[in-house]
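Work Package 4 report. The design task specified in the project plan requires that, given a folded chain encoded as structure tokens, an amino acid be chosen for each position. We show below one input record used in the internal validation round.
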């Protein structure tokens, strides 16, 4: 294995660590709520806080630190990440836990964006796509492995042990980065006003709304999946851990299938079809969620269909503005986090005002809106493509 590949895999491993700090809270939500003495709906707002801080804070911090040397920025972000985990472990009460989530969100956002930039610089020009994909896979693997492992640790010991372990591993991550990642210069900042200017185009704004409704619908249900499996489905602790592990594996397979399907059958069929299956899976969970025998395959179907939309939507967004692909993906990342925040917030209201069983119905409604938005968006894209073709024809190009 080449030296640059080892560096990229190391960054992917650290991305897995910071990704676990984001996703783990949904896997241990019931334990956190019981320990700090708040309703599970209130504990769910820890996801809202994280996502809002990530969505609004990361673009600002990246603009402020754009000229900073990249290895130094990686180390600074990891040091703040360790601090965030220490606050979760050492400081008592819900308020400090909220502060911890904000600190972790800001440090995670800066690390992930910077690591993607560093990976693209480390790799040869013909391998940059693979390098970025490796880092994204590392972050996504947190959902597959990190969340169920965290659930097991929290079951046998204490949920604070999870954040304590992540914090200690963060110190080793800092050492690995300092020893292996070479220095690299910062970049000219892309003004936030330039990033937001793309939103003035209706075609791009509607395309980003697909992400919002899709992820919001997903997050309404996923935020409260552990309490749902324990109280509605009646699963044991071991059953919940197994269910979360199956969910994570299915998300990886779904993502792979989404990329394959986009190449073979196109964006329209993959995106709209996947979202419709996603919505049906959530409806079936409401209907058959009381049965552990049915719930496990439904979790797999839900995760597979939900994440089949991921690569397709990213490809769709890049096609909307190929000349500004980096900005489009940055905007998509912020919209995704805002949708996670909205989904967790709406889910909390549903749990408080209606019932835990209602979250998948409401989530299905959100995903159905996403499918309808995708149909409108793809129609606008086809119209724009025809308009440009006719313009070129008139110009004799």
């Amino acid at each position: 294995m080449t030296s640059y590949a080892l560096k990229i895999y190391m960054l992917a491993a650290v991305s897995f660590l910071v990704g676990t700090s984001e996703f783990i809270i949904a896997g241990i939500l019931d334990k956190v709520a019981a320990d700090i003495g708040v309703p599970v709906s209130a504990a769910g707002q820890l996801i809202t806080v994280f996502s809002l801080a990530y969505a609004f804070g990361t673009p600002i911090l990246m603009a402020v630190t754009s000229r900073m040397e990249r290895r130094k920025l990686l180390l600074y972000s990891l040091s703040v990440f360790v601090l965030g985990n220490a606050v979760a472990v050492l400081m008592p009460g819900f308020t400090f836990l909220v502060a911890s989530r904000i600190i972790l969100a800001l440090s995670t956002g800066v690390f992930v964006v910077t690591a993607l930039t560093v990976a693209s610089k480390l790799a040869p020009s013909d391998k940059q796509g693979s390098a970025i994909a490796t880092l994204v896979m590392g972050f996504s693997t947190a959902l597959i492995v990190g969340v169920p492992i965290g659930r097991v640790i929290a079951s046998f010991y204490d949920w604070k042990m999870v954040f304590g372990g992540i914090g200690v591993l963060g110190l080793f991550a800092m050492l690995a980065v300092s020893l292996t990642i070479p220095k690299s210069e910062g970049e000219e900042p892309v003004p936030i006003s330039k990033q937001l200017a793309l939103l003035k185009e209706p075609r791009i704004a509607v395309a980003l709304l697909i992400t919002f409704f899709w992820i919001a619908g997903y997050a309404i249900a996923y935020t409260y999946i552990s309490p749902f499996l324990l109280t509605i489905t009646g699963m044991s602790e071991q059953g919940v851990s197994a269910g979360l592990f199956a969910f994570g594996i299915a998300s990886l397979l779904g993502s792979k299938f989404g990329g394959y399907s986009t190449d073979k059958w196109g964006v329209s069929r993959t995106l709209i079809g996947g979202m419709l299956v996603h919505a049906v899976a959530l409806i079936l969970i409401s209907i058959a969620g009381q049965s552990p025998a049915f719930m496990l395959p439904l979790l797999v179907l839900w995760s597979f269909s939900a994440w089949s939309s991921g690569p397709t939507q990213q490809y769709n967004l890049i096609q909307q503005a190929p000349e500004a692909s980096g900005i489009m993906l940055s905007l998509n990342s912020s919209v995704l986090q805002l949708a996670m925040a909205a989904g967790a917030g709406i889910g909390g209201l549903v749990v408080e005002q209606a019932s835990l069983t209602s979250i998948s119905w409401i989530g299905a409604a959100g995903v159905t809106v996403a499918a309808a938005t995708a149909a409108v968006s793809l129609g606008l894209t086809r119209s724009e493509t025809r308009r440009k073709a006719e313009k070129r024809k008139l110009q004799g190009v």
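The two ends are 47 Å apart (CA to CA). Validation will be extended to a larger panel in the next phase.
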